[in-house]
């Protein structure tokens, strides 16, 4: 793992801590900075981390605080409470 990947993971960890402390603007800046590092170094954000942030407003998604999570037949539906965008991911319930 290279330096950009380590920085991206660290910034997402800081974003998670900021959301726990109810500092959503700081969490949004951390996520935006992590995405900028990934873009600049052409490494991409890992999928397990990219699903934790809203694509439109870059807020860190935490169920119950900044997002609503529902399970539908064969998929998970995540709705951002900041901007209202919806993301759907496949889910195998077995």
UniProtKB/TrEMBL annotation:
Primary site of residence: cytoplasm
Listed GO biological process terms: tRNA 5'-leader removal
What's its catalytic activity?
A: Endonucleolytic cleavage of RNA, removing 5'-extranucleotides from tRNA precursor
Q: Does the keyword Zinc apply?
A: yes
Pfam (any one)? Rpr2
**Catalytic EC class:** hydrolase
For this record, an example GO cellular component is:
cytoplasm
Q: Which GO terms describe its molecular function?
A: ribonuclease P activity; zinc ion binding
- Location relative to the cell: Cytoplasm
Key word S-adenosyl-L-methionine present:
no
Q: Which domain of life is it from?
A: Archaea
Cofactor(s) required, per the database record: Zn(2+)
- Its Enzyme Commission number(s) read 3.1.26.5
Q: At which positions is Zn(2+) bound?
A: 54, 57, 80, 83
For this UniProt record, give its keywords in alphabetical order, as a comma-separated list: Cytoplasm, Endonuclease, Hydrolase, Metal-binding, Nuclease, tRNA processing, Zinc
Note how many cofactor molecules are bound and how.
Binds 1 zinc ion per subunit.
InterPro entries, per the entry: RNP4, Rpr2/Snm1/Rpp21
Instruction: Report the protein's function.
Output: Part of ribonuclease P, a protein complex that generates mature tRNA molecules by cleaving their 5'-ends.
The Swiss-Prot or TrEMBL record describes its family as follows:
Belongs to the eukaryotic/archaeal RNase P protein component 4 family.
Subunit organization: Consists of a catalytic RNA component and at least 4-5 protein subunits.
UniProt name for this protein = Ribonuclease P protein component 4
Query: Which species?
Result: Halorubrum hochstenium ATCC 700873
